[in-house]
């Protein structure tokens, strides 16, 4: 079992206005199997055995890539409020990724967030420092990836 680290793991937050209905945006972000369409880091997502749809408790596996570096992560949906929010916790590093939809005039604000309420695992810290350029570099990469993810969702929702 990994022990919790004391590494400062800041929450990351980004958002984008989307000129589409909340229902349209929800249909895109609530299906984690489509994450590879949005995230520049996710190559593929598959629901784990026994799960046929996305809901609270659904478990899934991501295949991720950053250049030549390829790795697998396992996740579980920890918040699922239809039309409003989906959040999933990554088993390997303990972070929680979420999308929240905030209705606005002429569309929605889509908010993506990475939070680490339990810190990050020692394993994650070792891998980040050893293979991903360190915490600061990896965090900057995550911020850039979040912006790309939101822009891709926006483009699809508004098409």
Q: Your description of this structure?
A:
29% of the residues lie in helices and 36% in strands. It is an alpha+beta fold and 159 residues long. It has one domain (12-158): 2-Layer Sandwich (Alpha-D-Glucose-1,6-Bisphosphate, Chain A, domain 4), CATH 3.30.530. The chain has a seven-stranded antiparallel β-sheet with strand order 1-7-6-5-4-3-2. A hairpin with a 3-residue loop joins strand 4 (69-81) and strand 5 (85-90).
Q: Can you tag this structure with a few keywords?
A:
single chain; 29% helix; disordered N terminus; globular; 159 residues; 7 strands; Alpha-D-Glucose-1,6-Bisphosphate, Chain A, domain 4; 7-stranded antiparallel β-sheet; alpha+beta
Shape label: globular
The count of DSSP E runs of length 2 or more, i.e. the number of strands, is 7
Strand content: 35-45%
Write down the domain tally.
1
Are there runs of 5+ residues with pLDDT below 50, and where?
1-6
Biggest sheet layout: 7 strands, antiparallel
At the first level of CATH, the class is Alpha Beta
The CATH level-2 architecture is identified as: 2-Layer Sandwich
For this structure, the CATH topology is Alpha-D-Glucose-1,6-Bisphosphate, Chain A, domain 4
**Element-level helix/strand string:** EHHEEEEEEHH
**CATH homologous superfamily grouping:** START domain
Calculate the terminal CA-CA distance, rounded to whole Å: 45 Å
Radius of gyration (CA) equals: 15 Å
Would you tell me the overall average pLDDT?
91
SS-based structural class? alpha+beta
Percent of residues in helices comes to 25-40%
Number of helices: 4
Q: In which order are the strands of the major sheet placed?
A: 1-7-6-5-4-3-2
């Amino acid at each position: 079992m990994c022990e919790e680290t004391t590494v400062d793991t800041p929450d990351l937050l980004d958002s984008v206005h989307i000129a589409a209905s909340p229902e349209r945006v929800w249909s895109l972000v609530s299906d984690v199997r489509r994450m590879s369409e949005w995230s520049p880091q996710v190559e593929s997502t598959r629901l784990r055995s026994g799960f046929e749809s996305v809901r609270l408790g659904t478990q899934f596996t991501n295949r991720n890539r950053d250049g030549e570096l390829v790795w697998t992560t396992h996740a579980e949906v920890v918040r699922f409020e239809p039309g409003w929010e989906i959040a999933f916790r990554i088993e390997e590093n303990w972070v929680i990724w979420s999308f929240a939809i905030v209705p606005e005039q002429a569309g929605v604000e889509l908010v993506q967030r990475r939070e680490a309420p339990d810190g990050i695992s020692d394993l994650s810290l070792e891998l980040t420092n050893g293979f991903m350029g360190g915490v600061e570099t990896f965090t900057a990469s995550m911020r850039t990836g979040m912006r790309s993810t939101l822009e891709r969702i926006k483009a699809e929702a508004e098409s």
